[in-house]
Every structure is written in structure tokens, then in C-alpha cells.
User: Which sequence fits this backbone?
């Protein structure tokens, strides 16, 4: 089973006639739903609001097959994000996060990752950067990584996370807790403007991860390991929008490694094999491409 920790968000996506269509999103929630729909046992750790949107989110996870044992229901409102989609299908977001359910993690009992039942802990996005959830997640991940692999998807959103230098410092601290990192080229440009992708990835490898995977949009993706650099092309599809495509890619990457039996601390040597990593990248690219053919998050 994969444990995913993070937020749910309601994306307000442009619709015909100048309307806004509320759709379920949030990086970790998207990743969890994408995994569960493909039959990968997945539980989401987080909070859900007590409003209409919270009920919509809850129904999404029921339909996807996400385990909700640690998905806490509250009376607080749901987090909202206005998605502004550009001509290339990429979206920028404005967020409403103050006082919302997704970051109210005080006093929460989080699961102990037993390697007999848990393959991986995955975390990232807003809940890993905004307190009090950020403190709870960091403490929990720091304990979990002694027992199981940890994957991290920063999903940088400066409009909600704050000033770039502080976000970069926080990101580098969390990188040190991860076994695997998936990050987009666009995210890297937000906190390392003007720096080369390969230089950043190699610095991150030196901080602790076994594998750093960078997604490059239409140019595909590239994985950096101490023993190899492996690339994969992006399938060509008719793009509706790219909302949640990175989350779908992450789900494909960690889902493939888990299902193939390589997501264990005693089997990480397989990640040094470019054939293994290349297969994971190609599968993840297919999942991300499929997500681009439908509106909103997968």
C-alpha cells in the first residue's frame, strides 16, 4: 500500500461562457486518486472540509477507491484555487488557504508505516509547506523513512507558499528526507531561476535521494541517478489542458516501481539500472499524457 500525505483542493476551472467549473484537485489527492483507479492500494492522509465541496471531494475518493482511514472530516471550509489556463494548456493558480481544512493537522494521529503492509510514503505540495500541516508531515516523514522509501513532489506554487528564497530553503530540507523526488522543470525555474536542470538535480542527489526525476513537458522526462542519466520521450496527444498532469506522472512513476517490486529499501539497487528506470519513466509518461486529454485534474 502507498500512503499519500497532503491536501485536497477545489480547482475552479474556466468553462464555456465565462463560467467557472469546480473540480476536485490538489497534488497529493490527484496522485492518490490516479493510483487507486489503476488498482494500486492507496490511502490518503489529510483533511476534508465540511462544506459542499468537501462532500464532493469525499465522493471522488470513494469512486476512485482511495482508502480514507486517515482522511479526517472537519467543519472547516475547503481550499479553493482559481486555475488560469494558458494557450499551451498549462495552468497558474491563485489560492484561498487561510482557515481551510487541508492544513489543520494539529493533534492528528498519523499511521505508523509498517514495511509489512506499507510500500511507500509519498508527500508534497502545499501541505508540506504551510503550517501546521507542514510541521506534522515533516516529523512523520522523518520517522517513516527509517522503515520504508519516501517520495516527494514539491509542486511549487509560490502564490500560496511565499517568497522564493524561503521556499527553496524548505524544499532543500525536505529533499534530504526523500528517497525519490519528482519535480517539474517549471517548478525548478521558480526557485532556481537561470540554473541548469542537471546541476540542480545532481546537487539534490548529493543531499540524499537515490533518484531525482525531472519532467520537461513536451520534451519528456529525465531521471538522474549516481550511476546513470535516463531519458524518456513524451507521447504526443491532443492536449485539453495540463492540470494535474504532473501529479498523474508521479502516480505512474511510483505506482510502476511499487507494482514491479522495486519500491523497498532493500531493493533500491535496481534503481541504478537504466532499463528499470526507463520502463518506469515511459509508463509514467503515458499516464501523464492521458491526463492531458481531459479537462481538469485526473
Assistant:
Amino acid at each position: 500500500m502507498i500512503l499519500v500525505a497532503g491536501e485536497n483542493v477545489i480547482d475552479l476551472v474556466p468553462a464555456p461562457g465565462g463560467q467557472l467549473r469546480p473540480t476536485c484537485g490538489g497534488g497529493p489527492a490527484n496522485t492518490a486518486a490516479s493510483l487507486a483507479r489503476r488498482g494500486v492500494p492507496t490511502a490518503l492522509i489529510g483533511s476534508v472540509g465540511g462544506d459542499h465541496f468537501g462532500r464532493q471531494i469525499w465522493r471522488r475518493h470513494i469512486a476512485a477507491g482511495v482508502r480514507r482511514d486517515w482522511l479526517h472530516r472537519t467543519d472547516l471550509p475547503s481550499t479553493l484555487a482559481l486555475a488560469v489556463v494558458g494557450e499551451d494548456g498549462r495552468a497558474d493558480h491563485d489560492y484561498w488557504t487561510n482557515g481551510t481544512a487541508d492544513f489543520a493537522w494539529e493533534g492528528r494521529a498519523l499511521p505508523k508505516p509498517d514495511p509489512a503492509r506499507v510500500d511507500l510514503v509519498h508527500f508534497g505540495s502545499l501541505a508540506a509547506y504551510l503550517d501546521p500541516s507542514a510541521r506534522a508531515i515533516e516529523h512523520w516523514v522523518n520517522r517513516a523513512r527509517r522503515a520504508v522509501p519516501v517520495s516527494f513532489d514539491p509542486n511549487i506554487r509560490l502564490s500560496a507558499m511565499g517568497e522564493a528564497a524561503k521556499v527553496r530553503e524548505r524544499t532543500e530540507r525536505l529533499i534530504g528526507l526523500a528517497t525519490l523526488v519528482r519535480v517539474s522543470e517549471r517548478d525548478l525555474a521558480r526557485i532556481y531561476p537561470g540554473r541548469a536542470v542537471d546541476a540542480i538535480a545532481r546537487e539534490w542527489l548529493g543531499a540524499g535521494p537515490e533518484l531525482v526525476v525531472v519532467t520537461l513537458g513536451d520534451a519528456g522526462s529525465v531521471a538522474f541517478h549516481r550511476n546513470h542519466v535516463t531519458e524518456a520521450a513524451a507521447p504526443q496527444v491532443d492536449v485539453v489542458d495540463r492540470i494535474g498532469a504532473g501529479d498523474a506522472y508521479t502516480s505512474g512513476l511510483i505506482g510502476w516501481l511499487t507494482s514491479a517490486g522495486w519500491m523497498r529499501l532493500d531493493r533500491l539497487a535496481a534503481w541504478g539500472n537504466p532499463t528499470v528506470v526507463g520502463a518506469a519513466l515511459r509508463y509514467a509518461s503515458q499516464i501523464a499524457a492521458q491526463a492531458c486529454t481531459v479537462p481538469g485534474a485526473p
